[in-house]
Write a structure and sequence with these properties.
The complex is a heterotrimer of chains A (306), B (327) and C (323). By secondary structure, chain B is an alpha/beta fold. Chain B contains 11 helices and 12 strands. Chain B has helices at 48-56, 83-89, 101-104, 111-123, 127-140, 146-150, 159-171, 189-206, 217-223, 241-246, 251-259, and strands at residues 4-17, 20-33, 37-41, 64-73, 76-77, 94-97, 177-181, 209-214, 226-231, 234-240, 308-309, 315-316. In chain B, helix 4 packs parallel to helix 7 (159-171). With 323 residues, chain C is α/β, with parallel strands linked by helices. Chain C has a single domain, classed as 3-Layer(aba) Sandwich (Rossmann fold). Classes of the chains: A mainly alpha (306), B alpha/beta (327), C alpha/beta (323).
């Protein structure tokens, strides 16, 4: 069953099919759940990055006269034990959590993508070395590894303003091996496809094989798994920060905001301290996953008729 | 009509695709007399497999459905049966073999287990009895070493062997109708010859009716009693096998027969049918073959011809023959 | 037969695939996909290789073009051993020797527009200027029965037959001397298959390309090929001209193959040879003549002694003790 346009010869001059990306966008826009995810993400980004400009409490740090207030007209989500406005902190924390998630994703995609492509394309000894390193990193349980790295960093007394970058780096160290493996296996399976054998038969240069033939087939995978990994990175960052090993006060992140749930009193009596950041993490990660699933469905060539 | 095993009347089956709703099977009627082999031939996308899936009730409600028609099996309309009644019928009175024997068997169960399954399910016999029958069936489809095969797993057998096993499973409950959807397409020629031979002899031994679906006119000539040619969801020609091959009427059937290279009848140039199968989603009222037909007339572009009887038992849907019958 | 040197000469080609196993990854079982095959292809002819699955026909095709390494033997193209060329020499040779793939669906990159896919090799090899590419693409598209109208479209918008035309256009734009076509019509419907077969006939006539045509379909091979080799389990069983092979097959396997092909004539009653048993597993081929397990005429000698591939008449080779 082929496009009927093809059979109608020459009714107009050289039609150009809409690019594959536009077709992907069209399919994506048909998926309601992922649009909801996207909408919520846009909201949370605006909330975190634009929101603080509308808050009167941004520059007011600690306010000892106003601690542990429950939600009110002045403080919509109450205040914390240092008298800071929870809503404003939620916004500022969002900036950091989202940045850490995004940064960690970009780093793991770059490292994992490049190493995966090199492994899969050149094979041999390079592949062996890269994959063994990836194996080692993957066999070590992620969370304890992060804990140890974070603990060492705490020992070294890294200045707090650099910590978020270091957290990104740590997360990407844990994140890239999975991606590299995924990319490598994708490259290996693409190499088995006849069109890659065809590039061999045509005698094309390696650069053309890599950039014109393989990369365009890998990018969708990178986009999808990159998107999905943002959620994972946000979760790991929250976990670390919750234990005081990631982003540490006075910088706020959703993870370290939930730390207040550690105290029984706060947990029972002051839910405004931990419910909002908890919900923020929960909804953000769900939205990212919805978005990622939607992207995958839109991109996956298997969904299309051959 | 005690002599008819299956009677399909005005079957309309639709599929929902990205391009819109398509009529995979469009107003198709035919019947299969007892003990006869009817072949459905056509190229990919002509709806021949959709007919089989419709009869077996295997069309997934999400991707399509039967919108009209009757499928009478020994007088009962399969489309009106309840789910459990249909299940009783399938594998018992009607069974089916598929193109890919490799994927039709469960890789983690033994061959024997899979042959015994329908026996125990439908015939309600003991395990011991079922095993005895299974071993007989393995012998019946021409594999020696029945005991050894019984205990082996699908990956240990070749494609031809597996197709024999599929036939054994299909025959387990002595069905009155066997539907075979491209049963030899995935097999090598020498193995295909074996399987066709097997199907032919089984049909004779058991007086079974068969609906064979294939794209290969050679296979049709070897096994069919009656042939139905489909194009774009429609039956365009049908008739007893000898008449149809000797004297094809529809330009498409003629073209198909001429386009196929035949051993020891080499020509310099093959006849070709120009163009390609139309997109089923964008059909307009016309003869669907008109775009590719060398004898296309004005009326062919405007109206779909009806299928009419010719005097020698053939039936054809083509405007060229319209004056033969009195409309 | 011409006295001219053959364009392709395959000498004692062997390709073994090792199945590694055990603790130290030693080759435990070896599949002899191609086992000592020799033949020549003359300039301008179409040589056919037929065989069933496991016969090694595709492996031979890929080995000749060095899309695959070989275990032993030589493949000479115009006198040069293809497998001994350096990578740079090989790259320079590539445009002259082309491959047409079986599966029209997976042989085109889904993310590359058809015009680019056909023209890119010209550019990559520096065979023409950038501004000439479009007109050359248009030219080969028209030869292959498509038009420039199709240039800016993606492969998924085409039917199987059209994609096969695109694959052929991609090969002939480089003006190759030799093309290996690996089952190029077996994935296509009859009416489309005839169109592509005729396209091949046209290329044979107009372009003086030498073809190696690989297929399991004996009727297609008879139509297109002037000389044909019959393979069984990696070994050449019979080789001869079309007339010799089809009107008077000598090897029992060739006879059985020919008689197994269903003929679209219900009135035809012929004596059919139905082979017993299955094609043996290539990892564990029978001793002696590989065909003896299924051969209706097998003798004790066939079980132990490998028959020689001998010339029985001019240009006609058979590997059978009975001939």
């Amino acid at each position: 069953m082929e496009s009927s346009a093809v059979t109608l010869e020459k009714n107009k001059k050289l039609p150009r099919s809409s690019s594959l990306w536009r077709q992907i966008a069209r399919r994506f826009l048909q998926n309601k759940m992922s649009l909801i995810g996207l909408a919520f993400l846009i909201f949370i980004i605006l909330f975190s990055f634009i929101g603080p400009f509308f808050s009167p409490y941004v520059n007011l740090g600690v306010d000892p006269t106003n601690i542990n207030q429950s939600p009110s007209a002045q403080h919509w989500l109450g205040t914390d034990k240092l008298g800071r406005d929870v809503l404003t902190r939620l916004m500022l924390a969002g900036r950091i959590s989202l940045l850490v998630g995004l940064g960690a994703m970009v780093m793991s995609v770059v490292i994992g993508g490049v190493l995966g492509i090199i492994s899969g394309f050149y094979r041999g000894i390079v592949d062996q070395i890269i994959m063994r390193i990836a194996d080692v990193l993957m066999t070590l349980p992620g969370l304890p590894l992060l804990f140890i790295m974070a603990a060492i960093l705490s020992e070294w007394k890294v200045p707090t303003e650099y910590r978020i970058y270091i957290v990104m780096l740590m997360l990407s160290i844990v994140g890239w091996p999975g991606l590299a493996r995924l990319v490598r296996s994708q490259i290996l399976s693409l190499s088995e496809r006849q069109f890659m054998q065809a590039t061999e038969a045509l005698g094309l240069r390696d650069t053309r094989k890599l950039f014109k033939h393989l990369l365009p087939n890998i990018i969708p995978l990178l986009i999808v798994s990159g998107t999905l990994s943002v959620g994972g990175a946000i979760l790991s960052e929250s976990t670390l920060s919750f234990f005081g090993l990631g982003v540490v006060p006075p910088d706020a992140s959703w993870g370290n905001m939930i730390t207040s749930a550690n105290s029984l009193l706060d947990f029972q009596k002051r839910p405004w301290l931990w419910v909002p950041p908890g919900l923020a993490i929960f909804l953000t990660v769900i939205s990212i996953n919805l978005l990622g699933d939607g992207l995958r469905d839109a991109i996956d060539p298997n969904m299309r008729r051959r | 009509m005690g002599n008819t095993v299956l009677d399909v009347k005005n079957l309309l089956t639709q599929y929902y695709t990205n391009g819109g709703v398509i009529k995979a099977v469009d107003d198709v009627s035919f019947s299969i007399p007892k003990g006869q082999t009817v072949c459905l031939v056509g190229e990919s996308g002509c709806g021949k497999s959709a007919v089989a899936m419709s009869i077996m009730g295997l069309i997934d409600g999400g991707s399509g459905g039967i919108k009209n028609g009757e499928i009478l099996f020994e007088g009962k309309d399969l489309l009106k049966l309840k789910k459990h009644e249909l299940r009783q019928l399938r594998g018992n009175d009607i069974s089916m073999i598929f193109q890919e024997p490799m994927t039709s068997l469960n890789p983690v169960l033994t061959i024997g287990g899979q042959i015994m399954e329908p026996l125990m399910e439908h015939e309600l016999i003991s395990k011991k009895e079922a095993k005895k029958r299974a071993l007989e069936l393995i012998e019946l489809v021409g594999i020696g070493r029945a005991e050894e095969i019984f205990n082996s797993y699908p990956h240990q057998l070749s494609g031809g062997m597996l197709q024999r096993i599929m036939i054994a499973i299909a025959l387990a409950c002595s069905p009155n109708l066997l539907i075979a959807d491209e049963p030899t397409t995935a097999l090598d020629v020498t193995i295909q010859a074996q399987i066709l031979d097997l199907l032919r002899s089984l049909k004779e031994q058991r007086d079974m009716s068969m609906l064979l679906i294939t794209h290969d006119l050679g296979v049709v000539a070897e096994v069919a009693d009656y042939v139905i040619v489909m194009y774009a969801g429609k039956v365009i020609e049908e008739g007893p096998v000898v008449e149809l091959f000797k004297n094809p009427k529809h330009p498409y059937t003629k073209g198909l027969l001429k386009a196929k290279p035949v051993i020891n009848q080499r020509q310099e140039e093959l006849y070709t049918i120009a163009g390609q199968v139309p997109n089923l989603a964008t059909l307009t009222p016309s003869c669907y073959f008109s775009e590719r037909c060398e004898q296309c007339m004005a009326i062919c572009k405007e109206q779909m011809p009806k299928i009419n009887d010719l005097d020698n038992g053939q039936r054809v849907a083509c405007w060229l023959y319209e004056e033969v019958t009195t409309v | 037969m011409t006295n001219e040197a053959p364009l392709i000469e395959v000498k004692n080609l062997k390709k073994y695939f090792g199945e590694k196993g055990g603790l130290f990854q030693r080759n435990v079982s070896v599949v002899k996909a191609v086992d000592d095959v020799s033949f020549q292809i003359h300039r301008g002819e179409t040589f056919g290789l037929v065989g069933e699955s496991g016969s090694g026909k595709s492996t031979i095709g890929k080995s000749i073009l060095r899309l695959q390494s070989i275990t032993e033997g030589e493949v000479l193209f115009d006198g040069k051993d293809v497998h001994k060329l350096s990578n740079a020499e090989m790259r320079n040779l590539r445009p002259k020797i082309q491959f047409i793939f079986q599966d029209p669906y997976s042989s085109l990159n889904p993310r590359i527009r058809v015009g680019d896919a056909i023209g890119e090799a010209l550019l990559d090899h520096g065979l023409c200027e950038k501004h000439e590419v479009a007109s050359k693409v248009k030219e080969v598209l028209e030869i292959c029965g498509l038009s420039e109208y199709h240039m800016n479209r993606y492969p998924h918008e085409f039917s199987g037959g059209q994609r096969q035309r695109i694959g052929i256009a991609r090969a002939i734009i480089l003006q190759p001397e030799f093309i290996v076509a690996d089952e190029p019509v077996s994935a296509l419907d009859v009416s489309i298959q005839a169109q592509i077969i005729n396209l091949f006939s046209k290329l044979q006539r107009d372009r003086n390309i030498t073809f190696l045509f690989i297929s399991h379909d004996l009727s297609v091979v008879e139509h297109l090929c002037s000389r044909i080799g019959v393979l069984y389990l990696g070994t050449m069983m019979e080789l001869g001209s079309r007339e010799q092979l089809y009107s008077n097959p000598l090897h029992p396997y060739t006879k059985a193959l020919l008689s197994a092909v269903p003929i679209p004539d219900p009135t035809l009653k012929r004596e059919r040879i139905i082979l017993k048993g299955d094609i043996p597993n290539p990892a564990n081929p029978p001793s002696g003549c590989k065909f003896h397990t299924r051969c209706p005429f097998a003798t004790e000698r066939c079980k132990v002694e490998v028959p020689e591939f001998k010339e029985v008449e001019s240009g006609r080779f058979v590997a059978c003790h009975l001939v």
